[in-house]
Amino acid sequence: MRMMSVILIAICFFFSATAMADNETLTDSKQELDRINKELSDARNKADSLRHLESNLQKTISGYSERVNRNRKVINKTERQLAGVRGELENNSELLTDTENRLQLKRDSYINLLVDYYRRQKSDNRLDIWNFGKVMSQSRLVHYLASISGRSTREIAQVDDSVRLLSLHADSLEQTGSDLNKLRREKQAKVNLDLTLKEKEETSLGNVRRQSNVLQERLETLSEAARRMEEIVAELERAKQRRRQEDGEAPRYRSAAFAQLKGSLYPPIKGRIISTFGWKKDKITNLSSFSPGIDIKPSRGYNEMRACAPGRVVYVGQLRGYNNFVIIEHDDGYYTTYAGLGVVVVELDELLNSGDKLGVLVTEKAHFEIRKGREHLDPVIWLDLNEF
C-alpha cells in the first residue's frame, strides 16, 4: 500500500494545477517524475543485487549438497568395510578359539604321554605293561618315545605359531575397525555441519526470494507511477498551452475555511491507525520510502469511507494496489485522498458535506492523505482522534 502512494502523489499534482501557477506546477511535476525515476532506478539496482545474491546462495547450497553426497558415499563405503571387518573378526575369533583348543589338546596329550611313560618306568614289568613283550628292546622303546616327543613338540610349536598369528591378525582387525569407526564419525560430523550450513543458506535464500518478490511488486508499482506521471506532465504541458490562448482561469472551488478544521476533521472511517505518515525503511527490501498518508484498519462492522470535510470531488479513478480512490478538493488548495474503495457512490464535480459517504471499502485497510498544494500533511494532526 505504501508503494502506491507514489502514484497518488502524482495524481494530486495534476489536480493541484488549479491551485498554483502553471509554471510552478509543471516544474513540481517534473521534479516528482525525476524523483520517481530515481526511486525506480534504486529499486532496479536492488533487484539486480538480490538476483546476484540469490545466484551465489544457490551455488553455495549446491556446494554443500555435493559435499554431503560425497561424505555420505564415504560413510556408506566405510560401513560396508566395517561390516566386512566385523565378519572377518568374528571368523578369526572362532578360528583362534579352535586353534587354542587344539593347542591345549596337544599339550595335554604330550603331558599325558610323559606322565604315562614315567609311571611305566617305575613299574617292574614295564615291557609287559606296554605289550612289547620280548620283541622290543629297551633301546627301541627309548627311541620310540623320543620320536613321539619330538613330533608332539613340533605340532605344539606349529599350533602355537598359528595362535600367535591369529592373535596378531585379530589385533590388526581391531585397529582397522577402530580407524574405520573414527573415519565414519568424522565424515558424519562433516555431513551434520554441512546440512546445518545448507539449511541456514536455504533460509537465507528463501528470505532473498521473498525480498525479490516484494521488490518486483515495487518495481511494477514504480513503473506504473512513472508512466502515469509522464502522462500528467504531458497533460500539464498541453493545459499550459491552452491557457495561454484563453482569457483567465475558471474560479476555484471554495468552502468553509479548511485550515480552521485542523484537529477536528471527521475520520474517513472508524478504526485503528496501523501505518503512520513520513519516511520509513522497508524491513524486507531495506529501501526507504515516503508515505504521504496513513493506513487505517476498520473497526468491526465499519466498511464505508466518508468525506472528512466539505469539498468537491475532483477525481475518481482506479490504481493497482489501491482499487478505486477519490480525491476531494477543499478551499485554499487543500486536497484529501481516500483509497481502497470498491463501489464508489460519488461523481466528478459533486459537492459533498462532512461525513458524506464516498464508497465501500474492499481492502483490509483504508488509505488516507491530506495535501496543501505540493505539501504533504500528517493526517493525524488534522483528524479528530476522539472520533476513531
Query: CATH topology of the largest domain, what is it called?
Result: Helix Hairpins
> In the CATH classification, which architecture of the largest domain applies?
Orthogonal Bundle
The helical percent reads 55-70%
Radius of gyration: 49 Å
Mean pLDDT across all residues, rounded? Answer: 77
Low-pLDDT residue spans: 13-21, 124-130, 132-136, 249-255
What can be said about the biggest beta sheet?
10 strands, antiparallel
Question: What CATH first level of the largest domain would be assigned?
Answer: Mainly Alpha
Total count of helical runs of at least 4 residues: 5
Name the quaternary structure: single chain
Query: How does the overall form come out from the CA principal axes?
Result: rod-shaped
Domain count: the total is 2
* Secondary-structure element order, N to C: HHHHEEEEEEEEEEEEH
> Distance N terminus to C terminus?
21 Å
Structural class, please? alpha+beta
Estimate the strand proportion.
15-25%
Query: What is the tally of beta strands?
Result: 12
List the helices and strands and how they pair.
Blueprint: H1 5-15, H2 22-121, H3 126-129, H4 138-244, E1 271-275, E2 278-281, E3 288-291, E4 293-298, E5 304-306, E6 311-319, E7 323-329, E8 334-344, E9 351-352, E10 357-361, E11 366-372, E12 375-377, H5 379-382
Antiparallel strand pairs: 1-4, 2-3, 4-11, 5-10, 6-7, 6-9, 7-8, 8-10, 8-11, 11-12
Helix pairs in contact: 1-2, 1-4, 2-4
